[in-house]
């Protein structure tokens, strides 16, 4: 049986960007770099193109897509903004912040899971921004991985997961942030809600808006139910290897476990370490740890371990720790 062709990984040359822009305008899907994780992009205003995203990923249509815009000026073309949304957008765009707002009719129902709202952001990655400008249309782009698996942070991650399902991947280097965008529900600007923590922290949002930001990190496990925003399901970002999380791990605890069980610490533990000990950042810098989290989980998932133990980023659910712990908890959910 002949092997399926593998996606071409293209550098961001002017010629390649023109090619990819033409393919997106024609209704194709393309793997793209963003500062958060790699996305699988399609023309957000073309329902047939967006349907290809769901088919390639095996993603349920109840899970909405994030619409990426080239600039804040484009927001009025897809959503109904309010003063709170504009204040956050002016502060954090381009950047890793997604806003959920009432949508305009031009946004297809498949993009919003049939809901009257849409998730939107202006990305900061320079190559993706150049591509958005060339396409001249908003692009829907969830993470470029099989649904439920660990999000990709390199072009090679995309090719390993979706290489036989798509034709092109734009290589923009490793993602600078490594975790998906922060998502805020601003349909009611008087009651902003954090739906997913990310690099833009809840504390930064509250300081900018001058009010409290509600966050109830309970997750829905009902895949068939339309979700207000992506990343809301109980189990997500999961390795194939069973993952167990610990509020606090130790080398002594790891030493008592089976040698075929991996241990992932936030910072490098002191002392002599066995070969099944790994860490995210030598000094425990949480932003650096977040950047490496998905790549490290992917690596451990290929090493034949029977189980992965992962340490949470402390008990203080603020700042970058909230985003790391959110991803680990959902990756470990049954």
Note down, in words, how this protein is organized:
The chain has 334 residues and is of the alpha/beta class. The chain has 2 domains: 8-209, Alpha-Beta Complex (DHBP synthase), CATH 3.90.870.10; 243-332, no CATH class. The chain has helices at 14-25, 47-57, 83-92, 126-135, 155-162, 202-209, 251-255, 286-301, 319-332, and strands at residues 8-10, 30-32, 39-43, 66-68, 97-102, 117-121, 139-140, 168-170, 182-185, 193-196, 243-246, 261-267, 277-281, 307-311. The model has no long low-confidence stretch (mean pLDDT 94).
Task: Summarize the SSE layout with pairings.
Blueprint (H helix, E strand, L loop, with lengths): L7 E3 L3 H12 L4 E3 L6 E5 L3 H11 L8 E3 L14 H10 L4 E6 L14 E5 L4 H10 L3 E2 L14 H8 L5 E3 L11 E4 L7 E4 L5 H8 L33 E4 L4 H5 L5 E7 L9 E5 L4 H16 L5 E5 L7 H14 L2
Parallel strand pairs: 1-8, 2-8, 4-6, 5-9, 11-14, 12-13, 12-14
Antiparallel strand pairs: 2-3, 3-7, 4-7, 5-6, 9-10
Helix content: 25-40%
Q: How many helices does DSSP assign?
A: 9
Q: Can you summarize the main beta sheet?
A: 10 strands, mixed
From the 3D structure, determine the CATH topology of the largest domain: DHBP synthase
